[in-house]
Write a structure and sequence with these properties.
alpha+beta, 11 helices, single chain, 68% helix, two-stranded antiparallel sheet
Length: 429
């Protein structure tokens, strides 16, 4: 516990120190950056005033050590630069601060150099003639400042670490000292942390419970001894590990033991094999139950493996069984289909025979019909030629009145049609 408290305090001190360094450096860096921007803006205004009054002559003999002055024409051409040759410099019309100064009268920007670990701050102002005067200053980044201050920061860190280690050691020892000097026999009399009062009360409750259980156990043991003392049979109480819990006087005399052997292993009382076998059969062996469980599990695993093997064999034979069943099903299906084909073929043949017979009968009937009609026509023509039409009509009225009426109706209809046709032709004429 002391080590954990010590580590926690040291880690907390280190985190606080590191956070403080980063916070202070960040705040101070932004503060001084703001001051430099204000000074750069003021210097830009002064230089712009001088350039408007004197032109390029203002820069003759001007010693600018920390600032860089650049004068840019309206088309972006560099007219003057305090650090480089203006003729070799590129066009500055696309620079952010130049575009802002040309449009708003004043422009500011900053750019980082990853290789140099520097930040350049630019301030530009548009002059009365439309040209732009720009001043810039180079500023170290916060990482450069940290590297520059690494030695003093390391010294402060070492001093803070030593102080934190000393305080952590002392504080952890003071925290653990009351805990190591606790009086567990009388917990409520301990003086220390008030936060431990619920723990002390719980300890007192547990102690009372343990004392009550101990008294009950002693009372039961006393009752057991009272009951078993006068018995002639020997009684030995063992736990699951074959440790003797109690023994009556008869058992002591039986095993020739003087004094109490409670708390000892039964083997130290008697080493006979018969006793060991009885204990094993009675489950006195502490590993017997576990061995039985393991034996049951092994038997169950063996049965499962056998079933799995049987299922695997059945599964392996299943495709062959399926092929056999499919083959038998195919044969049965072919037998049924061909049987139906044969039956249908017989039925078709019977129908064909019947159709052929009916066709012959119909042909005979038609021939007889034609012959009968020809005979009727010949007889009628013969009688008409011999007896004449008037006699034939008389006999027609007698032997075939329906045909006669039908013929007369057809004749009347033809007459009416001829009469109507004649009337239409007369009207047209």
């Amino acid at each position: 516990m002391t080590k954990q408290i010590f580590k926690s305090i040291c880690l907390t001190a280190f985190v606080v120190f590191l956070s403080s360094i980063l916070l202070f450096m960040g705040v101070l860096y932004e503060y001084f950056s703001g001051i430099q921007r204000s000074q750069l803006k003021m210097q830009t205004d002064l230089a712009a005033q001088g350039a408007e009054n004197e032109g390029l002559k203002y820069f003759d003999g001007l010693d600018v050590k920390y600032y860089r002055i650049t004068w840019i024409d309206t088309n972006g051409t560099v007219l003057y630069d305090s650090k480089s040759d203006s003729l070799e410099m590129e066009n500055h019309l696309e620079r952010e601060e130049i575009k802002q100064a040309l449009s708003e009268g004043r422009g500011e920007s900053s750019r980082y150099s990853v290789t140099l670990m520097e930040r350049s701050i630019y301030s530009a102002r548009r002059l009365a003639d439309g040209t732009v005067l720009r001043l810039s200053i180079t500023q170290n980044t916060i990482f450069t400042l940290l590297l520059g201050m690494l030695q003093p920061i390391a010294l402060i860190f070492v001093a803070a670490l030593i102080l934190a280690l000393a305080l952590a050691f002392r504080l952890s020892r003071n925290i653990v000292k009351p805990l190591n000097s606790l009086n567990l026999d009388e917990p409520l009399k301990n003086e220390g942390y008030s936060e431990l009062t619920p723990l002390f009360e719980r300890i007192v409750t547990q102690q009372r419970k343990i004392r009550r259980q101990r008294e009950e156990l002693q009372q039961k043991q006393s009752e057991f001894e009272t009951v078993t003392t006068g018995m002639e049979e020997g009684i030995i109480l063992l736990n699951e590990k074959q440790i003797v819990l109690g023994m009556n006087p008869a058992a002591s005399r039986l095993f020739h033991i003087d004094g109490s052997c409670a708390g000892k292993h039964i083997v130290s009382v008697d080493r006979s094999l018969k006793l060991q076998e009885l204990l094993y059969k009675a489950g006195g062996n502490p590993g017997a139950a576990e061995e039985k469980k393991m034996e049951d599990k092994r038997r169950l695993i063996s049965e499962c493996n056998e079933k799995l093997e049987d299922y695997a064999r059945e599964l392996k034979l299943l495709p062959e069984e399926i092929d056999k069943i499919n083959y038998r099903l195919m044969l049965i299906t072919m037998d049924i289909c061909y049987q139906r084909i044969v039956e249908n073929t017989k039925e078709i043949d019977g129908i064909d025979e019947w159709v052929k017979g009916i066709r012959v009968e119909i042909k005979k009937k038609l021939i007889r019909k034609g012959e009968s009609e020809k005979t009727v026509f010949d007889l009628y023509s013969y009688m008409h030629d011999i007896f004449g039409a008037e006699v034939i009509e008389i006999f027609d009225m007698k032997y075939n009145p329906e045909e006669r009426k039908k013929a007369q109706a057809e004749k009347a209809a033809r007459r009416r049609a001829d009469s109507e046709k004649n009337k239409i032709e007369v009207k047209k004429a």
